[in-house]
What does this fold into?
Amino acid sequence: MPATPASRPPGAPRAGFPDGLPTPGRFAHLHPDDGACLMEAAALLATGRFTDSPRCTDPALAALARAVNDSVSEPARQALWPLAADLADARPVDRTYSPVLIGMVVDAARRLRPASRRLRRGSTACRARADRLAHARTPGVPARIADLLWWRGPGHHHLEHALRVLSAAPDADLRLSQLLRQAVYDARATTSGASATPGPATPPGARGLRPVPGLLRADVHGMRVRG
It folds into this structure.
């Protein structure tokens, strides 16, 4: 019988903080008693399963969330913890979401390294793919396979490199936290059919989520970016 998940640590944010979630922690965990990363918490809220790659979250967004969770300081990680409720239902049907998200991260890295040809190529590639998908017909099985292949290949590499650059910034906590909050907001706005304009993520706990039961990611400079 699974043990009860670890309790919330003192000082963790309480507003919108779902009761019963494990303690926030870096990297993957074998059991909720050991803590949980942001995506493992989202999976518990959405399905009751303990995994860092739940189907309820767009793969690119989940990869960003895992990377940010593992890279920021403990106070920043606790401040991001309420986003687990939004990540539990953040899989836009719009095929442009993933390349737009990755392009946003790449562009953020370009502000740190404006002369980087690799980042410039990545930004151009993401923008071009988003433009193509915006004019594509209703997706079928071949389209879903193409999206998966792009994410597993070029998309994953663009995101991974950009996150390496951002994680080395002196103010990495601020930059990574802002990127994740914007990405979650955009995903929720697209998922709910609302207009995605810059702003804070939808307050966690505002939607009905499954209660938490009692119950190998690649290391990228202290981050995991797995599809």
